[in-house]
Design goal:
This protein is mainly beta. The protein has helices spanning about 1-15, 405-420; strands spanning about 25-30, 35-40, 45, 50-55, 60-65, 75, 85-90, 100-105, 110-115, 120, 125-130, 135-140, 145-155, 160-165, 170-180, 185, 190-195, 195-200, 205-210, 220-225, 230-235, 245-255, 260, 265-270, 275-280, 285-290, 295-305, 310-315, 325-330, 335-340, 345, 350-355, 360-365, 370-380, 385-390.
Length: about 425
């Protein structure tokens, strides 16, 4: 160490020649890890450990230490060491984080986003502490073309991705906004989400849009949806009056229960979103609630004109529950509508939980492709995954050639005749 110190002093004398009369102090700069490049201001003066002659600086002496893979260390030293004094400076460097952050935003929002084909999330979404480097980011939204891109995540930085989704060919979209928001949207009688949102994969043509919210009058409008176009609906909902119909807000524990009003099916409760039933005539009404593996529940509710009546029900587990399975449906391309036992349950990739044992029918539907229908049979506790390649419709230029079945049959027949004659 003594020889190294003497050597550093000699080097500094060469770099900073001083007159015989000039006396000075020194900065002794060390670092963890060693071997860091040392700069006084912008001038390189050696690698740690290094002894540096001090100079009088009006604003102090700025010392920087740099090591690859570590954050830059810098410090401004006020004043200067006395003549012949050695002032120790120790730089403890911090490693650059091997992780980064990725913020994903889509237009329209609420797209399914995956990174490296992992678990899906809904946009906008922020991935934190993901490894640096190149990642495959995929976004899917019903009615829009898949958005797939490779993006580089930098260490210790926030990388942002703004994905502008393209409307899928052969379908249009509805952008529905209401004041207040949170109203239920039904397109041609099928629940399609809540305001404010964009509904994709809507077949072109004239469509009935019904907007309902408890405490407000129903809003109905017929709109024309055009191919590859976004049709906008903006409206302010009118509060109900004392002379109008009433409404019910139904919550169940657990969610996912089927609700019948006066014997007519009216919908299913969901997690975080109660089922709202509007336009109910004043007076007593029978509410019947049912969900698999729980006891059925029924009650009579007196609906008041112009009022919203809340109904909260905790269901009791069935004493003889039935084992259920799970069905996972994927399609290529993704975004196909899933109809399970003739009921719309979501889009691919999708998972259907609590499937009762036995045979079930399902159908995948995507604009521009032939519908795919099949059966699935599950046993209690089984998890069944089905991957389906959708076939483009004729006339789209994407047809998959079919084998020449008659020619194959003819060749087989000729082969059989040839073998019989040899025998």
């Amino acid at each position: 160490m003594l020889y190294s110190l003497v050597f550093c002093v000699c080097i500094c004398c060469i770099l900073f020649p001083a007159s015989a009369e000039e006396k000075t102090g020194y900065f002794e700069v060390t670092s963890v890890p060693e071997g860091g490049d040392v700069f006084i201001g912008s001038q390189f003066v050696g690698e740690t450990p290094v002894l540096i002659p001090a100079r009088n600086q009006t604003n102090g002496t700025l010392i920087r230490v740099m090591v690859q893979g570590f954050e830059i260390w810098e410090q401004t030293i006020a004043g200067t060491p006395a003549v012949g004094q050695v002032l120790p400076i120790k730089a403890v460097l911090v490693p650059i984080s091997p992780f980064g952050t990725l913020e994903v935003i889509s237009s329209p929002p609420d797209a399914l986003v995956t990174i490296d084909n992992g678990m899906g999330q809904m946009t906008p979404w922020t991935y934190r502490d993901i490894s640096t480097g190149t990642h495959l980011v995929s976004l899917f939204l019903t009615g829009f073309e898949p958005y797939v891109v490779n993006i580089d995540v930098l260490p210790g930085q926030v990388t942002k991705l703004n994905a502008n989704m393209t409307v899928r060919s052969g379908a249009g979209s509805l952008q529905v906004s209401t004041t207040p928001g949170g109203a239920s949207i039904f397109v041609d009688g099928v629940f399609s989400g809540t305001t404010n949102s964009v509904i994709g994969n809507v077949p072109p043509g004239k469509r009935q849009v019904l907007i309902t919210k408890a405490g407000y009058e129903d809003y109905e409008e017929w709109v024309y949806v055009s191919n590859l176009q976004v049709t906008t609906i903006e409206t302010s909902l009118n509060p109900v009056t004392k002379t109008s119909d009433g409404a019910l807000i139904i919550n169940t524990d657990p969610p996912g229960a089927s609700v019948f009003l006066d014997g007519q099916f009216r919908g299913i409760t969901e997690t975080g979103r109660p089922l709202e039933l509007t336009s109910i005539s004043p007076g007593p009404h029978l509410v019947y609630i049912s969900i698999r593996n729980f006891e059925d529940y029924s009650l009579t509710v007196d609906v008041k004109a112009g009022e919203v009546t809340p109904v909260s029900v905790r269901l009791n587990p069935s004493p003889m529950p039935q084992g259920c399975g799970k069905l996972i449906l994927n399609s290529e391309p993704a975004g196909a509508e899933i109809y399970f036992d003739d009921s719309f349950v979501g889009v691919t990739p999708g998972t259907i939980d609590t499937v009762s044992p036995g045979k079930h029918s399902y159908r995948l539907s995507l604009a521009g492709y032939q519908d795919y229908s099949s059966m699935a049979e599950l046993i209690p506790g089984q998890v069944l995954q089905v991957n389906t390649l959708l076939i483009p419709e004729k006339g789209t230029g994407k047809e998959i050639p079919c084998p020449a079945v008659p020619i194959v049959i003819a060749l087989l027949a000729a082969l059989l005749v040839f073998i019989s004659r040899r025998v």
